[in-house]
Amino acid sequence: MTAPRGEVRFEGVSVRLGEGPAEKLIVDGCSFVLEAGAVTAMIGPSGCGKSTIGAVLAGFERASSGRVVLDGREVSGPSPERQILFQETALMPWLTTLENVVFAPHARRRDANRRRRAQELLERVGLGAFADRYPSQLSGGMQRRAELARALLNDPALLILDEPFRGLDAMTRELMQEYTAELLGERRQTTLLITTDIDEALLLADRVLVMSNRPTRVREQLDVDLPRPRTHEAVLADERCQALKRHMIELLTDEVMRSFAAGVAAPADHGQRGNGAAPLTTTTRSQE
Q: With the C-alpha atoms ordered 272, 278, 279, 282, is the resulting torsion angle positive or negative?
């Protein structure tokens, strides 16, 4: 079996945004490793800087200090080897589902069999019968599946998922989480999942990075030792996962209280609760 690619070393990275009096330290001397072929979840308080770290990994944002290394090469800007799936849909409305999926590989001109492989991936994510439909004819969950198929077809060394299921209804979100967990587990795709959902992190990830309040750094790393394939039921039934969940809630609650005390809680990092400031979300099934 071919060794997985995509080992990432995030080494002492700090990020400052803004200029002059408005300059703020968002990430402070943050270090971690994304193991090749593994799924790593990053969870932390809303507004702490998770999405900023994702932008640095993708090459869209520059680190003020420190460095990012992918498979021995320093990251200096955007690259097809690092692909990010944002919260908002990025399907082109004038292209069919199949045409959207093949678009990025077509632009890179590296795979003569891209349409066949794209069709296979659409079948795999349950969209084979919708290949000729346009995005406006797809539900929100279908659009996310099409975007996931496009990202996997592009075969990046690093896939960054920035709260990709935000905004979906509870049932669709659970189905998308299980689809994604199965696909990533099969492909050994090096992935960073940025999330505010603890249950989602436990379902998808091999390791969880619990982040501190802003300026952020890794507070604790936790291994998720649960066999694949995984389901929500398996996660809920596993005592080790539930112990990890309780521990993460304690860590995150402490960080949220720190942010409130310091007066720096912010909605900028896409929290999912009504006040835009709390990181603690769970899937519907876990609350039953």
A: negative
The model's confidence at residue 115, banded by pLDDT at 50, 70 and 90, is confident
**CATH classification for the domain delimited by 8-81+156-287, as one of 1.10.3720.10, 3.40.50.300, 1.10.10.10, 3.10.129.10:** 3.40.50.300
Does the pLDDT of residue 112 top 70, yes or no?
A: no
Q: Which two tokens stand for residue 140?
A: 């929100």
Radius of gyration of the chain (CA): 19
Question: Over the stretch 239-273, which tens digit does the pLDDT of each residue have?
Answer: 999 999 999 999 999 998 887 777 654 444 433 33
Q: Is the pLDDT of residue 27 over 70?
A: yes
CA-to-CA dists, residue 130 to 101, 125, 143, 167, 283, angstroms: 12, 11, 11, 22, 28
Side chain identity at residue 42, one-letter code = M
- Distance between CA 156 and CA 83 in Å, rounded? 6
Return the closest-CA partner of residue 199 out of 158, 170, 159.
170
Q: How far apart are the first and last CA of the chain?
A: 41
